[in-house]
TrEMBL record:
Pfam families for the chain: BFN_dom
A molecular function (GO) term: nuclease activity
The protein's name: BFN domain-containing protein
Organism of origin: Gloeothece verrucosa (strain PCC 7822)
Stretches assigned to the BFN domain: 1-132
SUPFAM superfamilies, per database record: Hypothetical protein TM0160
PANTHER family: VON HIPPEL-LINDAU DISEASE TUMOR SUPPRESSOR (PTHR15160:SF1), VON HIPPEL-LINDAU PROTEIN (PTHR15160)
Length: 235
């Protein structure tokens, strides 16, 4: 089995559903798993160590395992059938290890909260992994490392915009639309029309952050992330 890490949570530009991107710890390949909105929010909250006023479902399960002294030893993503991924939780009870069927999204959310390793079987990787250094005529697979890094940076910028206290709801909505435009060019880097739209989106984003105090967190995030995004997208 191969240990995996959560690289990012990003929006699928075709289905408009969230996807969690996992990469192996050696940066050789990654897998992309479609998940639900609530599970995406839960995973993002765990990544950033965010806690609400009351425990959410995955917080509750993590607390329950701890209180009952049933350590989660690992989660294993092991199957893929008809575009559905399968996982199980490895829960230790004394000398017995129970393998409990789970959706990968729930397993990942629990693993992040309990600091538990995430594993993928070699068979699953043969079915679903995309080599990061692979070259292909398919633009969605070529330069996979750039795609992965771009998705990570755009997701970070999207989170900064979504949580900004310096932007109105209208400005947030418009800015997030521009991020979605940039996400499209990640998967279709040779589309000239998308490149034009992306350049327009960048101008709109620049105009949005220009009217915000320079020390605002969203402005700092923009200045930190945008240069690398522009470089990766060749804009």
């Amino acid at each position: 089995m191969i240990e995996m890490q959560v690289a990012s949570v990003a929006l699928d530009i075709i289905t408009k559903n969230p996807r969690v991107l996992l990469k192996d710890i050696s940066d050789n390949y990654f897998i992309s798993i479609e998940i639900g909105q609530k599970e995406a929010q839960s995973i993002i909250a765990a990544i950033h160590n965010q806690h609400g006023p009351r425990p959410m479902t995955h917080d509750l399960f993590a607390n329950l395992l701890k209180a009952c002294k049933l350590p989660l030893k690992g989660v294993i993503i092991h199957g893929l059938e008809e575009n559905t991924f399968y996982a199980h939780l490895c829960v230790q009870q004394g000398e017995i290890t129970h393998e409990i069927d789970s959706r990968p999204s729930d397993a990942i959310a629990l693993a992040l909260r309990t600091h538990t390793p995430i594993w993928a079987t070699e068979n699953l990787l043969r079915l679903a992994a995309i080599p990061i250094d692979e070259t292909s005529e398919n633009p969605e697979l070529s330069n996979s490392k750039t795609v992965l890094r771009s998705a990570q940076l755009l997701q970070q910028l999207k989170e900064a915009i979504s949580t900004s206290v310096d932007l109105s709801d209208t400005d947030k909505f418009e800015a997030l639309e521009q991020i979605d435009t940039l996400i499209q060019i990640v998967s279709h880097p040779k589309d000239e029309n998308l490149k034009k739209n992306a350049k327009t989106a960048i101008k709109i984003l620049l105009g949005t952050v220009a009217i915000i105090p320079p020390k605002a967190k969203v402005v700092e995030a923009y200045k930190k992330l945008m240069p690398e995004i522009l470089s990766l997208l060749s804009l």
